[in-house]
């Protein structure tokens, strides 16, 4: 196994960072890495905002549900799906690009492009001995986040990426069984097999939590996910995204 | 610069592969790498389908716009956003998760989760000396792709990933200027700066094409992107995604 695969398999989210800012050089490497990812038809439909202003970081940490590591880290990046750039391209070239950039297809393209770039950034950081944590919590209140970051229409902050030197070792959460995630030639819909795989995974996850909490926490994966989904969250998203003139047609 | 960052920065898409299938071991490493990516609240909202059946590969290559490398490669993966799994979780636990999994928020989560996993897979492959190419072309006709792969509702094949030993060296396409993609503290909307950056990038891209084609091709980035967006494509996507019971509310 090579070093890169070791880094990839060794990933765990870090939620406590040393008070040591990233260097300019590190930031440049992380952004260049992000930009080196594949992009759909060369569209490059994302922007990255590095937040260094202390007040802004504090406010973002609050909005993300009081996550201290959004404020306290080596650097905080916000990855944004960006089709505003392409609206400008339309203006510069005199071409009508609006229907296209308001389509669900291009909304999907922008999300995928942004995530591919972000994962390159995350791995570049990890390969330099830094820890990372994705912050979906910024989607709790995107109207506010957009105000803080002064993003135009057709730009949607998707998630933050907190990066820095880890304060402590964290553990790796077990993933779904290989056979459950990987299908050959067709999707296995056999209900019995499907549920058995989830049940056996529940045991793995439950053991993981028990070990980690000395028996206090026994959550299964299905239980945890069902609770999370039953609660519902960010149900304003459809309207919000459309108010930003994306995912409209 | 470490080896991982070198691999990341050295990425280029490969569109011609040697006739040498990946080993079981390589496939396992690629899938495990995909699964090691961060996942929003542990939701793991994706599945991966490896297509080895020759007829299916041929058909997918046609649907993707006659891209031969979809058929001829070391292995062809299809990455799918998957919330069907979570519908099953709802049934197993007796919780009502439907509103949640039909939301635009969870549609976004599934897309991001899938793309993060895919980029890990892509990099793991590249670190093993393999080449990769993302195939967005499968979105030309998802109804057909879903039939071939027998995916249930709430599963959307997002893109393919062709992997294999490269037949020839390809070149690296220049990316948008660093200052254009990376903002500090707020999104720079200054129209003059914004357009100047794109104009200077146009020159870089144009030189790249000229050099590569001995002067035959002189496309700028803005020109290329404007043409692509003006044409419109896959405008059926909104209805299609909603017919699969995602992005509904």
From TrEMBL, chains A, B:
Q: Which family does it belong to?
A: Belongs to the flavin oxidoreductase frp family.
- Report the coiled-coil segments: none
Per the database record, which ranges form the Nitroreductase domain?
8-165
A single MF term (Gene Ontology): FMN reductase (NADPH) activity
Q: Does the keyword Hydrolase apply?
A: no
Tell me the InterPro entries matching this sequence: Flavin_OxRdtase_Frp (IPR016446), Nitroreductase (IPR029479), Nitroreductase-like (IPR000415)
What are the EC numbers? 1.5.1.38
SUPFAM superfamilies per the record?
FMN-dependent nitroreductase-like (SSF55469)
Q: What is this protein called?
A: FMN reductase (NADPH)
Q: What's in the keyword line of the UniProt record?
A: Flavoprotein, FMN, NADP, Oxidoreductase
């Amino acid at each position: 196994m090579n070093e890169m695969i070791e880094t990839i398999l060794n990933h765990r989210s870090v939620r406590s960072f040393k008070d040591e800012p990233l260097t300019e050089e590190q930031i440049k490497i992380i952004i260049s890495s992000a930009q080196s990812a594949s992009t759909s038809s060369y569209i490059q439909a994302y922007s990255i905002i590095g937040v260094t202003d202390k007040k802004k970081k504090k406010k973002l940490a609050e909005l993300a549900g009081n996550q201290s590591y959004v404020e306290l880290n080596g650097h905080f990046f916000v990855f944004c799906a960006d089709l505003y750039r392409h609206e400008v391209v339309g203006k510069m070239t005199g071409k009508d690009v609006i229907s296209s950039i308001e389509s669900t297809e291009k909304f999907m393209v922008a999300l995928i492009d942004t995530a591919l770039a972000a994962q390159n950034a995350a791995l570049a950081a990890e390969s330099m001995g830094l820890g990372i944590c994705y912050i979906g919590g910024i989607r709790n209140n995107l109207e506010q986040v957009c105000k803080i970051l002064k993003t135009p229409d057709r730009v949607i902050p998707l998630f933050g990426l907190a990066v820095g030197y880890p304060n402590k070792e964290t553990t790796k959460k077990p993933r779904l069984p290989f056979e459950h995630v990987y299908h050959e030639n067709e999707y296995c819909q056999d209900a019995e097999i499907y549920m058995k795989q989830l049940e056996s995974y529940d045991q793995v996850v439950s053991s993981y939590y028990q070990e980690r909490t000395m028996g206090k926490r026994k959550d299964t994966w299905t239980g945890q996910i069902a609770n999370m989904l039953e609660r519902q969250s960010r149900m304003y998203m459809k309207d919000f995204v459309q108010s930003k003139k994306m995912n409209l047609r």
